[in-house]
Amino acid sequence: MIDMTEDGRRSIGFLLYHAATVLRPPVAAELKRLGIGMPEYACLTHLNEQPAASTAELARRMAISPQAINTVVRELQDLGALSRPDNVSTGRSLPIRLTPKGRGLFDRADRAVRTSSEHLLANLSADERIELVRLLSRIDVR
């Protein structure tokens, strides 16, 4: 394991926390205008990337409790953004999908999050931004 403090730099944990702290207020404000919060945006993002997920899969991916994901899914269903069947013919999980309204909401939310993230990334070159996204995408939430 690499100790990021050996050369006087701050730990990766602190830096990720700091980045999230700086990013949260503008992102939350933009998402609020769309009638959703960060958990709903994360759920929409996961379903956009991998449609037909179950609530259990979403909870694992988002690292939240089954109770919390059920609340998020219910809120998005109430907005008409998600659909899931009342029952399935095989298996036990009910696949959740974005509706056309949900895809539109995701697109608007994603644009808003990207726009409000610009100030955080202002000091990075285009190549550095690409590398940062690539590295952060490799973080595995279990």
Structure description:
The chain is mainly α. The chain has a two-stranded antiparallel ribbon with strand order 1-2. The chain is globular and about 55 Å long. The chain is built from six helices and two strands; from the N terminus they run ααααββαα. The longest helix is centred in the first third of the chain and has 22 residues.
Task: Give me the number of helical elements.
Answer: 6
Distance between the termini: 18 Å
Q: Total strand count, please?
A: 2
Task: Give the H and E element order.
Answer: HHHHEEHH
Q: Which value, in Å, is the CA radius of gyration?
A: 17 Å
- Percent of residues in helical segments? 55-70%
Strand order of the largest sheet: 1-2
Low-confidence stretches: none
Q: The biggest beta sheet, please? A: 2 strands, antiparallel
Sheet/helix structural class: mainly alpha
- How large is the share of residues in beta strands? under 5%
Shape: globular
- Mean pLDDT, all residues: 89
